[in-house]
Amino acid sequence: MEKIEVFSEELKEIISRKNIKKIIFIGGSDTGKTTLLKDICRFLLTAKISTGIVDCDVGQSFVGPPSTISFVKIKNRVFEFFPFPDKFYFTGGITPGANIIGFLTGIEKMKGIVEKETGKILIDTTGYIKDKLAISLKIHKIEIFSPHLVILLEKRDELQDIKRFLKYTSGKFFVIKIPDGFPVKTMEERSRNRMERFKRYFSKIKCVEIDLREVSLKVIGFRNIQSYEEILSLNLKGAVVSLRDNCLEDRIIGVFYQKKGEKAEVIIPDKKIEFEISGLVISNLFVDLNEVFINTHGGE
Fold this sequence. Notes:
The chain is α/β, with parallel strands linked by helices and 300 residues long. It has helices at residues 9-15, 33-46, 100-116, 132-145, 160-167, 187-201, 228-232, 289-292, 294-297; strands at residues 22-27, 51-55, 68-73, 87-90, 120-124, 149-154, 172-177, 205-211, 216-220, 239-244, 250-260, 263-269, 279-286.
């Protein structure tokens, strides 16, 4: 299919303005948000303008592994996936609704990073826009980031509530109408894409042992569980986890392998750990170890 061009000369002129620093992209699934963001990023880098990306699309992330809200400073024009971002926050879910409080906490943390950055900041969002909660989350995201420009990509008029919200504010917004025939991904394709991201993140692995008595524990998404003891009594093999430092910063994603007495074995990427493991976040997001690690340790 011939590529549908949405990056117009008018938009190039707007994003080049010095007073346009923070740019947020909002649109439903299959409206080309991420593709447009990458095109704009390449345009800015060609113009030698410092550029960073905040990826809030926890389900189809390309900065950081799925389930994370991530930030990376872009250093070259060739990019498809940044498995190890400069900073990230682990939400423990692949949709905002899986952990709304955690999702908004991650957005707030990214805001603190963005405020310290120079140059342009491009902010990608999820394609979740189908109900009132989704629209409300997008509006809250706008309130938190206070972007200088909101780029809205819509097929019909599904973003009318957001347009009305922005119309009476000082924020600038730019609407792109997405024509019929725009490529659409199936749920199966999205699931495969997510799994490929996990596979690439864990392309080389090692196992670390964590003494559960000597770390801060946080649990995400387990309902009707009254205590950490109950959580740790469950079969957690395959649960996606995050290892934290003593400042409560997420540093590396892992997968729970097994519990031995008071210690947990966690599979992580084979990277040098340059921090003291002081916290463990355990989510109810599970992956199939045989699928994720099939190319690394034979599915064992």
